[in-house]
Design brief:
Elements lengths: L14 H4 L10 H15 L5 H15 L5 H12 L14
């Protein structure tokens, strides 16, 4: 078998053994626990997820505020198409 050809030829003595599938399993549980612990450590003790979400909502309100008529129509079209989530009364913030 050539190095670039992963398929063994039938005349090779080990051809049947080489083509047998082998279960490969890796348990990443400990690495995932470590990763999550490191993320929480990096966020620090003052991290407040509710405050972060409220800040995101305020940023979206600011982003979509003060739209002119054409921008408002485009915003409404994007909401109707499901590209943007509906917010509040369905209109961009004034």
């Amino acid at each position: 078998m050539a190095l670039h050809d992963p398929t063994p030829s039938p005349d090779e003595p080990d051809a049947s053994a080489a083509s047998a599938l082998v279960d490969f399993e890796v348990d990443l549980t400990s690495q995932e626990v470590l990763r999550r612990a490191q993320v929480m450590e990096a966020l620090g003790p003052d991290w407040d997820p509710v405050e972060v979400l409220l800040g995101e909502e305020a940023a979206y309100d600011l982003l979509y505020s003060g739209l002119d008529a054409q921008q408002q129509r485009l915003y409404d079209d994007l909401v109707a198409a499901g590209v943007l989530p509906a917010r509040g009364d369905g209109r961009a913030a004034a």
